[in-house]
């Protein structure tokens, strides 16, 4: 919910409204065939989001690791969930019924503002993701994807890739073969090292340069 931290009253309200559920790995977390009635928060675990292809497979668009908002917008629109969410691991989610939340927002204006800021932040993230796909080449897209998963204050980070390479490639609008070549290229430059699903970033400044981020 951003900063400053939630006040005790805001925290108590959200805890009162939230309905916690556990979902097993491999099960559907969000079904796009259902109309959204709640804001959904991923408390723990890993999920992948996307839409079904003609062959029935899930076309991956992005992944999330808790804690993170899984869907904070569909319920406001009274529409079905925008994407299907599939649990990559056992996950815990919290659903906040929107109708119940609305009755409290007039008496908690700062909390209402927090939700507005959260939605604005998500719009900004989607704009950046769209710009990345439209205007950057494959190495820059992959570099930016890695940077989004690395703490900005560190010079080195360790990542556990929860998704299959073909799912990551789909998110980045490239083939799995292209992604594999990029991983080998980044390794040969000493920027990263890959061992199975474990990826180590050794040179964040070099990764930022590959992403086209001079900062």
Overview of the molecule:
The mean pLDDT is 88. A four-stranded antiparallel beta sheet has the order 1-8-3-6. A four-stranded antiparallel beta sheet has the order 2-7-4-5. A three-stranded antiparallel beta sheet has the order 9-11-10. It is α+β, with helices and mostly antiparallel strands. The chain is globular and about 55 Å long. The longest helix has 27 residues, at 109-135. It starts with 7 loop residues before the first helix and ends in a 5-residue tail after the last helix. Helix 5 packs across helix 8. The protein has two domains: 8-133, Sandwich (Jelly Rolls), CATH 2.60.120.10; 137-210, Winged helix-like DNA-binding domain superfamily/Winged helix DNA-binding domain (Arc Repressor Mutant, subunit A). Strand 4 and strand 5 (58-65) form a beta hairpin. Helix content is 40%, strand content 27%. This is Transcriptional regulator, Crp/Fnr family.
Q: How would you describe this structure in keywords?
A:
alpha+beta, Jelly Rolls, Arc Repressor Mutant, subunit A, 8 helices, WH-like_DNA-bd_sf, DNA-binding transcription factor activity, transcription, WH_DNA-bd_sf, cNMP-bd_dom_sf
């Amino acid at each position: 919910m951003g900063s400053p931290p939630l006040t005790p009253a805001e925290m108590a309200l959200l805890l009162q409204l939230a309905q916690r559920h556990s979902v097993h790995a491999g099960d559907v977390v969000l079904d796009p065939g259902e109309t959204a009635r709640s804001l959904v928060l991923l408390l723990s675990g890993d999920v992948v989001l996307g839409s079904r292809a003609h062959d029935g497979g899930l076309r991956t668009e992005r992944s999330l690791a808790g804690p993170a908002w899984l869907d904070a917008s569909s319920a406001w629109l009274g529409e079905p969930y925008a994407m299907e969410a599939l649990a990559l691991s056992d996950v815990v989610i919290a659903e906040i019924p929107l109708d119940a939340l609305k009755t409290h927002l007039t008496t908690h204006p700062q909390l209402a503002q927090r939700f507005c800021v959260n939605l604005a932040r998500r719009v900004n993230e989607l704009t950046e993701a769209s710009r990345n796909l439209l205007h950057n080449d494959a190495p820059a897209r992959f570099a930016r994807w890695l940077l989004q998963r690395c703490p900005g204050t560190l010079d080195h980070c360790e990542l556990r890739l929860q998704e299959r390479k073909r799912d990551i490639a789909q998110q980045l609008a490239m083939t799995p073969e292209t992604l594999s070549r990029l991983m080998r290229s980044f390794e040969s430059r000493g920027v990263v090292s890959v061992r199975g699903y474990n990826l180590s970033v050794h040179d964040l400044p070099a990764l930022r340069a590959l992403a086209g981020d001079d900062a």
